[in-house]
Amino acid sequence: MNVEDNNESKAKIHTEWELLKSECASCKKCELHKKRTNVVFGRGSEDADILFIGEGPGEDEDREGKPFVGRAGKLLDQVILALELPKSSYYIANIVKCRPPGNRDPKPEEAAACIPYLRRQTKILKPKILVCLGKVASQYIYNKDVKITKDRGKVIKQKGFIIIPTFHPAYLLRNESGKKYFWEDMLLVRKYLHEMSDKNEIR
Ligand code: SF4
Fold it and tell me: Which atom of ligand 1 is nearest to the CA of 33?
């Protein structure tokens, strides 16, 4: 592909992305729209090879309109920084884009209404590695029967993705002992990213 074609294709992808974002901003497909302050579309690089997926926005995220900006998000950011993952390598989103009241899990019908947006984001981003943060994200992404304490750190190859389930950072704020496993899982994420980079399989 020559430079002109490449620029044209990037512009097309960006337009698609912006259209999707504005569709989400006015979405009322499930009950969660009623109490939201902001739709939380995601944050990170549009060239990401890693997509971190949580379950849904909390209070801070709802207020700021960005995912993982509260205490759990700060912990995630610290780990990403410690791993020296380039900013261009990851994007962060959730199963549902509006806050479930009281930080409850999203209901199945809410997840079913919202997940097509995440699918479309994934289709546009084309990440290679999906990191499921916690049980809820893992259930919706690859296995409804997942047991996160048992299944974290496994590497699932499905539909062209490498899927790595791990703990949700909010869980680690309550369970200090989980941090070392989370770190191990994140090292695995980095290892796959580096392996792909060595094989020129990533951007
Ligand atoms: S959670 Fe998703 S489907 Fe429900 S209103 Fe928000 S954007 Fe729409």
Answer: 5
**Ligand 1 centroid to residue 42 C-alpha, Å:** 13
pTM above 0.90, yes or no: yes
- Output the CA 43–ligand 1 centroid distance in Å: 17
| pLDDT tens digits in sequence order for the chain, 203 residues long | 677 777 788 888 889 999 999 999 999 999 999 999 999 999 999 999 999 999 999 999 999 999 999 999 999 999 999 999 999 999 999 999 999 999 899 999 999 999 999 999 999 999 999 999 999 999 999 988 999 999 999 999 999 999 999 999 999 999 999 999 999 999 999 999 999 888 877 66
HEC assignment per residue over the chain: CCHHHHHHHHHHHHHHHHHHHHHHHCCCCCHHHHHCCCCCCCEECCCCCEEEEECCCCHHHHHHCCCCCCHHHHHHHHHHHHCCCCHHHEEEEECCCCCCHHHCCCCHHHHHHHHHHHHHHHHHHCCCEEEEECHHHHHHHCCCCCCHHHHCCCCEEECCEEEEEECCHHHHHHCHHHHHHHHHHHHHHHHHHHHHHHCCCCC
